[in-house]
């Protein structure tokens, strides 16, 4: 149950300060108190140095807030942090939360720390924080990966063409990483003289109320944040919908999804913990396990590979392959029978009742089934004045309403709509040789049943009720 050495990177190989008052852990991506390699490593270091452990979180607010984050995202984040803070307290770790950037709080608190431990995310904004911390703190800095099963550089040293090229590389090594993680016991518990938190996150609603942020997109009741809730959902999934997942995962009306993507996005559950639970499940067969691990590991880590090795993954000219941009440009002036403004799209005011239902599910509940996400994105491309504008619209709407928006999966899936990780297909209007998806794809499942289910979900949201589909 040791932490794999490939997860550990020394960013600044200085000696730990002998006069440090504590070990500092910047808890920013892995927002949980359990099954967290960075936390367990920090506990090991604190025990070795006979020091207490301080975990900190920088809460971005106002104009400096996390790009595109709104009340929906922050409500879920704060619920998770309240859960994590309680769990850390039980383990004897001091939790400190302040309104500051992650880099700023880490640099400020590291002045009195023996060493600094970071967890890891793969987005550009996170890379920027790590670079700023490296420039602002001259002491020992160690980063420990806990957001993927196989560390990105270990899986591949380059941008992969698609799942077919990354899959064998992951399969070759993933057994070495799908391993239990033992919870270490902290020997020097938090006491007097340690930094104090400026925010009481035990009341996440109060914290949210006091923040300056976009409130036009409200929190949802369908999903409650936190590692406790994530594990409850995982347990419920493996006790029920998981059996038959291989056959039913692409049928939205079957409700065979685990609904864990928001929890993965906010680091409230480890993908390794999920993989272990899936492998140990008493229900389901080989097809169910294989299908789920394909989504959890191969597809998710293909997205991590994309954002890690693509400098401007949120820009059409950088994220979309050259062949796809060329063919889309050749057909940019093709007639489009339907055109909608971004406001109409966001409101679900199109001629397509199935597309409108998918948009309503996202807008009202923060989630949309994967089978609908691709259809949803392809239609925005078809209904937009240009491929560049379609890409930008899709990303803006995606990031605004999805709980798991602004994620590596989001950036990658939007680019996939425009040809990323795909190949040329038969030529047609508007799309050129980029893959097209028609209404015929909806025949693969009960589309009318899906519409009715979404209507019930949206009504439950309006009444403030937890959805029966996710219990």
TrEMBL record:
Domain Photolyase/cryptochrome alpha/beta per the UniProt entry, residue ranges: 21-152
Gene3D superfamilies, A to Z: 1.25.40.80, DNA Cyclobutane Dipyrimidine Photolyase, subunit A, domain 3, HUPs
InterPro entries reported for this sequence: Crypto/Photolyase_FAD-like_sf (IPR036134), Crypto/Photolyase_N_sf (IPR036155), DNA_photolyase_N (IPR006050), Photolyase_Class-2 (IPR052219), Rossmann-like_a/b/a_fold (IPR014729)
A family per Pfam: DNA_photolyase
Database matches in SUPFAM superfamilies: Cryptochrome/photolyase FAD-binding domain (SSF48173), Cryptochrome/photolyase, N-terminal domain (SSF52425)
Cofactors that this protein relies on: (6R)-5,10-methylene-5,6,7,8-tetrahydrofolate
PANTHER family registered for this protein in UniProt: DEOXYRIBODIPYRIMIDINE PHOTO-LYASE (PTHR10211:SF0), DEOXYRIBODIPYRIMIDINE PHOTOLYASE (PTHR10211)
Protein name (database record): Photolyase/cryptochrome alpha/beta domain-containing protein
